[in-house]
Specification:
The chain has about 90 residues and is an all-alpha fold. It has one domain (about 20-80). It has helices spanning about 10-45, 50-80.
Length: about 90
């Protein structure tokens, strides 16, 4: 979908809020993935499987927060254009 095909932004405040949520969501997702990578490596190598699982479980918190913020961002930006959801 090109920029010409998109409907114009009707509510600038909602669009701005969506951009803020998206930026923060990407940050949380990046932090979670950086924490999870050593855990995945430990599980793949097989030397410290328990420690690797614990690290991945700790990293699941920031990843979940990041995904929730990205979904909220998408919904906010969609509704800023006054488009129907269903």
């Amino acid at each position: 979908m090109d920029a010409a095909d998109r409907p114009p932004v009707a509510d600038r405040q909602l669009e701005r809020q969506g951009r803020k949520l998206g930026h923060t969501g990407v940050w949380w997702l990046t932090v979670g993935l950086v924490i999870a990578i050593p855990g995945i490596v430990l599980i793949a190598i097989g030397t410290a499987i328990g420690l690797g699982i614990a690290i991945v479980l700790i990293a699941s918190g920031p990843v979940g927060i990041g995904l929730a913020l990205l979904v909220s961002s998408a919904i906010s930006r969609w509704s800023a254009r006054h488009r129907l959801f269903a």
